[in-house]
Structure formats: structure tokens, C-alpha cells
């Protein structure tokens, strides 16, 4: 169509092959390559990112921690919830700001109560593992209308359902990752 011979454009075609815009096979010829657009690359990177690459340090308290100590920890760490573990470090529950606010308003004796009285217990906690995708974590956060999720791995006890907390992933972590990805492009 261009009235050019193959030897004339062979050097141009070899550059396009090296850049993956086109592929070449002997006795077949040239055809479209596997190169993706920058938007496709960004999307693929986001889909491949795992929770283990992104999660932050968990803020953990023990079941025996008093509500007063929990409130102090919550504000010192500037987080929305505290992860509650038992003596062996296994996930027992979660205490949110709302939980602490509800129990302390108008209750003078609340400060000496243990957090285990007011925490959301293990069966009702939504968790993710380090191998889960960030997209899956974001879906869980939106579906359950929560601010963050504990990142857990199976506990060494081997008992079914026993998990150990290794991190937490929050809306803030996910948004920061998205902004960093956009800034790279």
C-alpha cells in the first residue's frame, strides 16, 4: 500500500518489534504485539497489588486493657479503631471510636472496665490476608461500611479460625496508593 519494499522498512520494523508494538514470526510475518497503553499498565499494576505490599502496622491492645488506656492509645496513635488480641496474640476483637464513645458517655465507672466488655468479637470481624488483592480489601471496606480491616494469617496453634494479626489496611492506605500510582504516570 505504501509502495515500499521490506528491506526499506526492515530497520523500522525491528525497532517496533523490540518495543513490543508488533511481533514477528518467520514465514508468518508481522502482527500486533503485547505492549499495553500506560492506562492498561496502571490498571494491571493495581489489580496485581496485594494487601501484604500495602498494609500498615496494627495498633493492638490486650483484652484486659482498660477503656481509659484504650482511649489514650486511640488518640496517641491517631487511628479509628484498636485491634484486641488475647495473651497469645490471636485476634479476639476490635474496638472503634464509636464503641468507646458510647460506653463512656454518662458512665463514670466505664474507665476501669476492660475493652473485652465492649469490643466487637471475632466471628463478626471482617478480615483480609496478605495474599488478598487490594481491590478485594477495598470491596470489603465499602460493602461493610468500615474504615479499615485487620490483616491476618493463620495462628501457629493450628486450630480452625485462630488467626494472628500482622497488619491493618485502611481507606487511607488505599487512597495513598492510588495517588502514588497516578503520580508515577
UniProtKB/TrEMBL annotation:
Coiled coil: none annotated. PROSITE patterns: CBS. The keyword Ribonucleoprotein does not apply. InterPro entries: CBS_dom, CBS_dom_sf, Diverse_CBS-Domain. Residues 54-111, 119-184 form the CBS domain. The keyword Phosphoprotein does not apply. Keywords: CBS domain. This is Transcriptional regulator. It comes from Paenibacillus woosongensis. The lineage of its organism: Bacteria, Bacillati, Bacillota, Bacilli, Bacillales.
Amino acid at each position: 500500500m505504501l509502495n515500499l519494499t521490506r528491506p526499506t522498512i526492515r530497520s523500522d520494523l525491528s525497532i517496533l518489534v523490540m518495543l513490543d508494538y508488533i511481533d514477528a514470526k518467520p514465514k508468518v510475518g508481522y502482527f500486533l504485539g503485547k505492549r499495553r497503553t500506560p492506562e492498561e499498565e496502571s490498571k494491571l499494576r493495581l489489580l496485581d497489588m496485594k494487601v501484604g505490599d500495602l498494609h500498615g502496622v496494627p495498633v493492638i491492645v490486650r483484652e484486659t486493657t482498660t477503656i481509659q488506656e484504650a482511649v489514650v492509645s486511640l488518640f496517641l496513635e491517631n487511628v479509628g479503631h484498636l485491634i484486641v488480641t488475647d495473651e497469645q496474640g490471636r485476634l479476639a476483637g476490635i474496638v472503634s471510636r464509636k464503641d468507646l464513645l458510647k460506653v463512656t458517655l454518662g458512665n463514670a465507672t466505664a474507665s476501669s472496665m476492660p475493652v473485652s466488655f465492649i469490643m466487637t468479637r471475632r466471628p463478626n470481624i471482617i478480615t483480609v490476608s496478605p495474599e488478598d488483592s487490594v481491590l478485594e480489601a477495598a470491596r470489603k471496606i465499602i460493602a461493610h461500611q468500615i474504615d479499615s480491616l485487620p490483616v491476618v494469617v493463620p495462628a501457629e496453634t493450628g486450630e480452625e479460625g485462630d488467626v494472628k494479626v500482622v497488619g491493618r489496611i485502611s481507606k487511607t492506605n488505599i487512597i495513598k496508593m492510588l495517588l502514588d500510582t497516578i503520580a508515577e504516570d
